[in-house]
Amino acid sequence: CPCVPCRGAMMDNRFATALVIACVLSLISTIYMAASIGTDFWYEYHTLSPAENVSEAGRSIWEEFVSKDADEKTYTDALFRCNGTVGLWRRCITVPKNSHWYSPPETDMTTNCISFSLSDQFVEKYIEPGNHNSGTDLNRTYLWRLQFLLPFVSIGLMCFGALIGLCACACRSLYPAIATGVLHFLAGLCTLGLVGCYVAGIELLHRKLPLPEDVRGEFGWSFCLACVSAPLQFMAAALFIWAARTNRKEFTLLKAYRVA
Questions:
Q1: In degrees rounded to 5, what are phi and psi of residue 68?
Q2: Where does the chain cross the membrane (predicted)?
Q3: What confidence tens digit (pLDDT) does each residue in 186-201 have?
C-alpha cells in the first residue's frame, strides 16, 4: 500500500519534533538549575537605611558576619540590617566601602559575600537560633540539608538522562527515551522538593527570628529560576515518554498490518 511509507514518514517527523522540543526544554532547565545553584539571590532582605545601621555598629557587623564562629542568629541579624541576600552556597551583605568608626556615613555601597563551608551545610540547627543549649531543631536541620543535596541530584539525573539519550541516538532507537523521560521526571520531583524545602526552611526561620519592622524579605530571581526549571523538566519527561511509547505502539501496529 503506498500510504504505509507516507504514514511512517509522518510518524517519524512527529516523534523527531517531540524529541527536539524535549531536548531543548531539558537544556533550558539544566541551565536554569545551574544558574540558580551558582547565584546568591534565593532570598533577599531590603533594609530602609543600611548605611546608617552599619555606621552605628562600625566594622563589628562585618567582622562577626565573616567570622568562622558566626552562628545562624549572628549572620541572620547582619542580613536583616545590611540588605542581605542568601543563596545555597553563599550569604552576602551590602556595606559602605569605608565603614570605619571615624568615617562619616557613605552612600557608596559594596556587596561582600562569604561562602557556606561544607560543614556549614550539614551543621545542626537549634530550636532557638544562636543558643546551642536549646536543643536540635530536626525539621530545619533536615530541610537545610535537603536543599543542599537535591539540586545536585536533579542535575545528575538530567545529565544521566542526556547520556542515555545520546546512546539512543547512536542506536537509532526511541526505546531508551522512556528511561530518559523517567529520569527527567525524577529530576523534576527533586527540583520541586528543593523549592518546597527552601520555602519551608525560610518560613520556619522567620518564626524563630521575625523580620524587624523596617526590613522586607522576598524570594529572589535565583529562586524563581529553580521554580521555572521544575515544570520544564516535567514537560521534557512527558515528551520523551510519549514519543517512545507512541512510536513503539505505532511500530507494533504497522508490523501487524504488514504481516496481515
A1: -65, -20
A2: 15-35, 148-170, 182-201, 221-244
A3: 999 999 999 999 999 9
Mean pLDDT of the chain: 81
**Joined grid coordinates for residue 154:** 536533579
Q: Is residue 143 part of a domain?
A: yes
Q: What average pLDDT does the segment 128-153 reach?
A: 91
Contact call for residues 125 and 146 (beta carbons, < 8 A)? no
Q: Is residue 65 situated within a structural domain?
A: yes
27: domain CATH number?
1.20.140.150
| Structural domains of the chain, count | 1
Domain that holds residue 228: 14-118+136-251
